[in-house]
């Protein structure tokens, strides 16, 4: 058909690919993103859990630093004053209460960075 035998090989390969595509088959070269590339089991849950853990860790870290710098009594008095406020103040007091993780991290900072 063609003078160059490489063109014959090329066009026969192209015709085989077109026939397989017409039948509904697909072709994905190694290392490329295709139809199967994005569908991994568990990735949806991981995409939700990672930011949630990050937000919790940062929030606890900020609470621990505040607890360390202002002291336990001042921190508790400020949180209790926030709890008797209006609007979203009780929600803020609930979020800022000194939980065991905050107290532990604050105690670790006290041992590492004594004032």
| Number of DSSP E strands | 0
The low-pLDDT segments are none
Average pLDDT, all residues: 87
- Total count of helical runs of at least 4 residues: 5
Taken as a percent bin, the fraction of beta residues is under 5%
Class by SSE composition: mainly alpha
Helix content, binned percent: 55-70%
**What are the secondary-structure elements, in order, as H or E?**
HHHHH
Largest sheet: none
What overall form do the CA principal axes indicate? rod-shaped
CA distance, first residue to last residue: 89 Å
Taking all Cα atoms into account, the compactness measure Rg is: 31 Å
Please describe what this structure looks like.
By secondary structure, this protein is an all-alpha fold. Helices cover 70% and strands 0% of the residues. α3 (72-83) runs antiparallel to α4. The longest helix is centred in the middle third of the chain and has 28 residues, at 43-70. It starts with a helix and ends with a helix.
Q: What's this, in brief?
A:
This protein is an all-alpha fold and 115 residues long. It has helices at residues 5-23, 43-70, 72-83, 89-96, 100-112.
